[in-house]
Amino acid sequence: MAAMHVARRVYLYLVSYISLLVLLTGAAQLLRLVLELGLGLADDLRGDASSLREAFSSAGALLVVGGVVWSLHWWGAQRTLAPAQPGALDERRSVLRQGLIYAVLLTAAWQVASALQPLLQGLIEAGPAGDSTHVRQAVSGTLPQLLIYGLAWAYYWRVQAADARAAPARRRAATLRRWYFYLVNAAALSALMFALAELARTLWERLTTLAPLISSDTTGRFVPIAASVATILTAGAGWAWHWTWVQRQTRASAAEQQSVLRPVYLYVMLFQMITVALSSLAGFLHDGLRLLLGSNPLASGDSLLTAAGRPLLTAAVYGVFWAYHGQVIRGAAGRGQAEPPRPAAIRRLYHHLVAAIGLALLAGGGTDLLRLLFDLGLRGAATTDLSRAAWGDQISLCATLLSVGALVWGGQWARLQQAAWGADGADERQALSRRIYLYLALFAGVITLLISSGLLLYEAFRAALGEPITPTVLSALTWPLAAELTAGVLLAYHLRTLRGDGRARTAGAGTGAAPVRAEALLILVRGAEPPIWPAAAAALASSLPLGSDVTLLPAGSVTPGEVRAWLAARAAPAPAPEPLRTEPPLGDRVAVSAPPIP
Amino acid sequence: MQTHTAAPAPRAAPDRFLIGILIGIATLLVVAAGSVALLQRPAPLLPAGTPSGTIQRFYQALEQHDYDGAFGFLSDQMEQKPTRAAFVHSASAQGGPDGRAERIRIDREQVTAETAIVIVQITHFYRSGPFTGSSEWTDTQTFQLQQDAGIWRITTLPYPY
Hints:
The complex is a heterodimer. In chain A, 75% of the residues lie in helices and 0% in strands. Chain A is mainly α.
């Protein structure tokens, strides 16, 4: 029976989705044709009407066919939702129905944004004076798509709201809803940050070069900031609405707070923000050091102020959003609830990933800096004839990598170590991501030592066999020497950390500390038909919070009294062992056994 | 003996939003058909003494296969002016494959003393049915003209003429 419902839903909702897209495409094209005719944009210079006939025929066919098929199938799907219909609630909650609704919402949201941004850009470019042809073209090209897909979005939002009121979504259906919101939030926020940074850089350039803040190109259109402003308005509105909705739901629902997708979204966005912000700051630091050390990092025509401001503004924009999302994460941690396992694993994965990247930068920068210093000390060929500018370039790159790497790795590792050696550090020390990080660090260190040792021995053997030691040979020795030192130090440190974790784990096991057990509830079902037990268990599981397990164990003819006695015996403290006796006294032989629980 | 008769299941209230959408679809179809029938009009003939008017007459000549007439709009001072035969050959090849319609309109005209630039927007429609993806695309062509004894003539032709 369930399989029949699934087959029916797959058919109904898949056909509804496809026919809806056909309908919306035809409607948007037809509306665009009407607008172009009304605005006088459809006139052909030669008076040829074949393009009009073609446009109407194509769009009309899509509209009629899509409209008929969609309305029939959607009406068929909606018929089953009447309150008195058996299975109406199941229908509302079905994953396939929710999948269709959120697929339509996602498609429609994308189309609305794709139309709104160029519409706003066209209107801004036309400027207050309004190049009328440009405005008419912008409106006719985008307004139909905006209206038609906006209407579709509004209708299906209304459908999902009605479903949520009648039958709140659970588990997989709720996951689909979260996927929609977090995908839209991720896309909108990424576009918003990018456009804000771009606008900030453009305005900074105009301010520092004393160019007019807003200027028009030769056609009289206000071009430079139009695209950024339009993207900010579009993406900003989309993100603000969807994020506010998510936050409101999260405050009201424990299931939302504990969902896995939320920390995945937050940490993926944090990773994007930290990457862009730190890359921009690294670029600023690099150019600043180059300037101080005698090189000229400025592109032709750029002043120092202009060049310095660009990366700082980019870092500032992404930094603001980084700070905000950090606060969101801290707010979640401050609710006082225990962190569920999977969100905790995502958090640890993020911190260890960032630490690993920081470590790689630190190791690379440190090795390169040591290489230069060794080469200088040994009078190798690489540094003998370097100009001041070339020296400046090399030193500044090494120093930038070293500084940024140390900052990133130090910050993340300190936080991780604080958690690992804190009150509840056992879980942190035994986390998979920590293991992966430590073994990855060991692997990189050992492989680097292998290669550098091999190179050192190679040069040593050559020298021992009479090869002259030239400045080129000395330069060839500097990288393996530097790598030996860097890799050796980092390898020793991480090996020490790994051993410390192992000792702590052994010490914890030796104290006989009882493992933490999850609370369990035993429900004894008697008298019902066995075939319905799996469905009943599934229904019960779907009503429990994420992370709960329901296990079915057939118990034969066991009675509630027997189960009660067994649980009582299990909970009672273990009796002290009796002194050894050769023969128990008569009357003391009492057999106590718990009924076997199959 | 008690007899129980099942009451007919109450019907769900009609979804007015859905009904409104269906009415909107029908309305859009009727309005579009009416617009195509009533609002399409022959293109007004632009003044002959303007750059846009010259370009319009140039395209009308090509549309009517009057290639000699179209060649007459080319200026004698045109750099690398094609021969009449080469122009006719090239222009006749621009008819396009069967199944393609075009809409040509003037996008912009810029006049500076005795020279002018006219930018034309051409939207191509492929007659390949509604289900074969995007069936239209738009490109632009730029003409340069020079005034010669009060008459605007073309000094630069766009590709592919």
